[in-house]
Every structure is written in C-alpha cells, then in structure tokens.
Amino acid sequence: MIKLIVDTLGGDDSPRANVLGALKALRENEDLYIIFTGDEKEISKLIEENGFDDGSRYETVHAPEVITGEDQPTDAIRLKKESSMIKAIRILRESDDIAGLVSTGATGALVAAATLRIGRIRGVRRPAFCPILPTMTGGIVGVCDSGANMDCHPSQLLEFAVMGSLYMKHTFGIENPRIGLLNVGTESEKGDDLHKEAYRLLAASLGDSFAGNMEGRELLSGKYDLAVCDGFSGNVLVKTVEGTALQLLKKIKHDIYSKKLYMFGAMFLKQMFQEEKEFMNYQNYGGSVMLGTGKIIVKGHGSSDETAVSKCIEQALRMQKSELNSKIAEKLAELVPEAENTNTDNGGQENV
Known about the structure:
Elements: E1 2-7, H1 16-28, E2 32-38, H2 40-49, E3 58-62, H3 73-79, H4 84-94, E4 98-103, H5 107-118, E5 128-130, E6 132-134, E7 140-144, H6 154-172, E8 179-182, H7 193-206, E9 210-214, E10 226-228, H8 231-256, H9 260-268, H10 270-280, E11 288-291, E12 296-299, H11 306-321, H12 324-335
C-alpha cells in the first residue's frame, strides 16, 4: 500500500477539487492510501456525498487553517503550524511509511517548507519544479526548472537536466530523453555566461542525450523531451505557452460565432474542436513535481479541478513505484561526486 498526503486547502476550488480528485485516484488505484489534511467536517461531508465508503483506505487530519499566496513563506511556516500544508509537511517528515504529498496551495510556502523540513536528496543543491506539457507530435515535454530557483549556477542546470531526464525516463517511459537547454538561439556560443557554461557542462556530462540549445518556440515541437532552464525563464516559458493556448481557444470560439457560415462549418468539426480543447487543457497533465526533495512533492495548479488533482496523485504514485529518488541520488553521485553537501537529514531543526 502506498500512502500519500493530500493537502485539501489553498486552491481555487478547495477542498472540493482536492477531495474529489483523491477519491477518483482511490477508485482507480487499489494500492493507494490517502491522508487528507484540512477541515475535517468539510472533507467528511464531501466523501459521504460522493459515496466512497472504504474507510480502511483513508484518514483525515483536522487542520482548518489556510496558507494564502499573500503569506510570506517563512512566516507561514513559523506561524501557521495548524494549517493544512504545514501539518501535512510535518506528518510527511515524521512518518517513514508515507511516500509523498500533493498540494494545490501557495507555491512559495510549499517550496520553503519542503526544502527546510523534508530536506534534499544527497547531491542535490536545489530542488526544481518539472511540469509536463503536450507536444504537437502527441508526446509530452518536461520543463525543469519552472519556478523554484530564480537565480542558478551552471552546475545546478546540470542537476536539473539529470533529475528531469530520470523523471521522464522512469515515470513516463521515455527511454533516452532528448534534453534541450533553453536559450536565445541554437548555436553553442549563444547566450550569457551562465548558458555558455551550462552548455559546456551538459554536453560533457550527458553525451548524446543532450540535444543542444533550444529556442522557446520549439518547446512543443516534439523535438525535445526535456527543456532545462533557470526557474525565472522556465516559469515565464510555461505560463506563456499555457496562456497562449487558452487565448487561442477563446479566439477560435469567438471567430466561430462571428459568422453564420463559420458556425455552420463548425458543426462538422465539433468533435475535432473538443479533442483540441482537451489536448491543450493543462488540467489533463497533472502538476509540477518538485524534483530533488527527500520525499515526493507534487504541486498542482491553484486552479486545479478534480481531474488535475487525480493526475497529480498518479504522478506521485509513478514516482514512488519507480524509486525515482534513489535513481537521482545514484546518478548525481556518478556525475557530480563532489556534491556531498546535502542530504535528507534535517535533524535539530525546529519542528514545523
């Protein structure tokens, strides 16, 4: 049985989307056990309303306080100890039999709490977010990092490449992920000092897996399985792509209704439009996994619906079953043996 914690507060449609998404995952995975943190009364009500009666596969921890996006991360960790997120982090740290956490709450607080209280895999200097996007060839592409680290060193970009490629391989079955370094051009000498040095490191360490520099417009082309970038650039890239897809769908819908001829033609293409909408809907691709932490952390969009939450849980299950964290530690020890400054032990720190 794989145990996961679901933080039910902090998202736009919480706790409803979080609880229903977890129930969906429970129905689809017999080896899954869920620990809900949040308002116990609301959680119980939602579970009862949705007819899930297998009480042996879930439990609830009462934690009604919410961390918002307005809270300073360090203040939230220190002052909101009864919040659903911080209680979840505490339980995760103290329980060896719990594999990970899924949350749609405040990103800053989650990053800070996970890094400080859960700790990092040995050899990882900084954990990184890695969301998944669809490609035009019907595949997927990961983006690592997409917002956890605003300023990076070239060696950290190498870590992101290693962690991200192992994630794509062992979680999604891509045997030899093609890795691109986000840059302003494809030539090896393009970019600032950070990207020139990162290019040298990736080329020397990754061999044929490194596909060179990648321009942002090629992200969804299907030519790459992983885009490596600093958190600032990656966050802008992912949000620009998601926003463009949503706005394009809105424009197509507006244009269809602008003329009767278009409306008539759209009747014959209704199924195709529905398929394209589902293809571009980021809710169908789960959340951003936080690679490099001592236990599994999956951060869902704040606007996640129940489908997105269930996909986040699926990601966590796949990561646990593939023993991804141990594979990351082994590979980093092989490539960067001097990186001995981090581990998963945070003994002596104040309890969350």
